[in-house]
Amino acid sequence: MTRALFASAALALLALSPSAQVGLTDATCATNGTYGDGPPPATVPNGHIAWPADAPLWEFDVYRPNNRTTLNSSGLEIRDVTYRGRTVLARAGVPVLNVEYDEGGCGCFRDWQDDEASIEIGDDASVVTDCGTFREFRASAGGEVTIQTGIALSAPGVVETACEANDTPSNPSPGGDVGLFEGIAVEDYGDELVLTAHTEAGWYRYRIKWHFYADGRIWPEFSFAAADAVCTSVGHRHHAYWRFDFDLDGTPKNDVVREFAAEGTEGQVFTTESSRVLGGTADPTYWSVVDGATGIGYEIRPSDADLRLPVDEYSKTDALVLRYKMDEIDDGKTISSGCAFAFEPFVDGESVEGEDTVFWYRSGALHTAGSPFECDIAGPMLVPIGFELSTVDGVEGVEFESARPNPFSLTTVSRFRVERTQSVTAELYDLTGRRVQVLFEGVAVQGEWQELRIDGRRLPAGTYVVRLRGETARGTTRVVLVR
């Protein structure tokens, strides 16, 4: 694989429609060694993304998994993230990733993310940062194949990894990898931008996605899968530890972190470093990080998937509130020096009041015995606070709220209200274009909220699109059903 550094100052405008464009500047092919080389030196981003390009809602720098910024790589790391021109994340990624097997399995591992795995990006994808090719043997192809590397723009809904390809009833012979591309795949859905990277650690395949929504939400998604049945038929538990350094509005020392015991309760402010443990699937606890001066911030909402795997002696924590320190970007452990996250020295009772704070969050997945190619999807939802924006951009003649929760596992709810009374139809479609539910059909009265309830209990996991059509009202939004 080409590992030289290529720089490009040209702007790539990658349009799926005139109103939905992705801008990529300062593109490079920087890589930064492997975990075996020890702590990584400073590196440069693989590019700066602006979306939409002509009037950005979101801007940020991206780092590919093989461009390590932490000892074992943080996967697909993002930095200097702005929403509507305001800093919402200084840095975010997954510096710690591990797995533990049931008794009789393969013990435990601290996994690495600097080894990229292939992605299916679709026949019509545009490779906008070309970092060269390399050859590798693939059993399913009966010989060597050529792998393209870089950053690619794909049509929405076509990106696949081992997660989708192997964990499907229609695949009689699961296993192996799919696609002939390594790097970052970008999908523009109009009201959502999705970045995907894929890594391998032995037989494991890890997919990390960042979902950026027009309404300000962020879904950091982590998926756990496999390309080989070595060990993975035995029950085991994966843990990915997200590290969020918010530095809201670019002022790192006035972010206030709160914990809420339930919806509608008064949040408890953290004053010292803390480790927190949730109470299982019924626990309504969530957190917020808010700029003490401007009031903007984010709620950190645990997903149903994360709640299904409670803390044990190995995983130790669900969340950490820590004072920022340069030497606490990760815990310094590799596959040869430790499995469990050794965060205990980080939590030493220091004050976080008026200090730069960092929030760690554990996403976990129970991989059931007897299902070696099972794909488990996890990750919290980050919900914006204080932007005074509740509706989806890009709609006409209607206020159309994004569904909450999203992703969801059973049901989710969106709502809309029209600017003038008219007949309206709202329908749910899968990504093949097949209508699967009628959500609303009738007369919508001017200014009155109408609820759209999506029932996912009889639907397969996947991505769905809500389409709303009226005489003057138009709108779409996207929901993700997970199991």
UniProtKB/TrEMBL annotation:
InterPro entries, per the entry: Cu_amine_oxidase_C_sf, Secre_tail
BP-aspect Gene Ontology terms: amine metabolic process
Secretion signal span: 1-22
GO MF annotations, alphabetized: copper ion binding; primary methylamine oxidase activity; quinone binding
Superkingdom, taxonomy of origin: Bacteria
Keywords: Signal
SUPFAM superfamilies: Amine oxidase catalytic domain
The name this protein goes by in its record: Secretion system C-terminal sorting domain-containing protein
